[in-house]
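$ ./design --mode recover --in tokens.txt
reading tokens...
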């Protein structure tokens, strides 16, 4: 009986130890599994933020281009009118140099606007402003009136000589005027003939005649 009791106690102790070891082993396995899970977590970097661009249809692109062209054209016309206002101000002050300068600016705007008829007028007017500058500085009209009243050939020759002498001082004005007028003619030749064509031709004729008159004195 005692032997059986002791055997039973030993068996229970063994079972108890095995169950404790088993519990410890299970806890260890759980711990290892949790560590494995922790190690298996993948840390992902945040995705870069890409700016989204709205694609435009061909129709939208065309409308935007048309709007920009209209705005550019409006700005060009505004600049042209501003240049013309400056011309009027220069005229009021009898400043022929500034007149020519602003007229050439207006010609540039007209060219960009593809208004070549207006461009031709601006070059003609720039040349004409310099012609008027020459006439005023040399008292051209008064000199010509006095010359036409002379009758004796000797008096006419002497007066012409004196006229060439002081008019030649302002010769560069006519030379520059001629350049602008030739540019006006070059543009006008590509357009339909009009009153502008005649006016440009008359101004060129005046410049050439006076320059020829002044050049004679240089060869005498």
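writing sequence...
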């Amino acid at each position: 009986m005692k032997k059986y009791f002791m055997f039973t106690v030993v068996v229970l102790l063994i079972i108890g130890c095995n169950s404790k070891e088993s519990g410890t082993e299970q806890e260890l396995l759980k711990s290892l599994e949790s560590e494995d899970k922790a190690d298996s977590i993948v840390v992902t970097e945040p995705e870069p933020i890409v700016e989204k661009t709205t694609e435009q249809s061909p129709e939208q692109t065309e409308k935007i281009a048309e709007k920009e062209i209209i705005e550019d054209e409006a700005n060009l016309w505004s600049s042209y009118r501003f240049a013309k206002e400056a011309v009027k101000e220069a005229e009021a002050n009898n400043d022929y140099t500034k007149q020519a300068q602003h007229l050439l600016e207006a010609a540039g705007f007209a060219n960009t606007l593809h208004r070549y008829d207006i461009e031709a007028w601006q070059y003609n007017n720039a040349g004409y402003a310099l012609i008027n500058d020459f006439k005023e500085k040399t008292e051209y009209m008064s000199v010509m009136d006095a010359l036409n009243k002379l009758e004796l050939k000797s008096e006419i020759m002497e007066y012409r000589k004196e006229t060439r002498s002081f008019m030649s001082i302002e010769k560069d004005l006519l030379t520059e005027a001629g350049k602008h007028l030739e540019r006006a003619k070059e543009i006008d030749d590509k357009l339909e003939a009009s009153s502008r064509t005649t006016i440009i031709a008359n101004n060129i004729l005046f410049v050439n005649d006076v320059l020829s008159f002044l050049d004679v004195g240089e060869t005498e």
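exit 0
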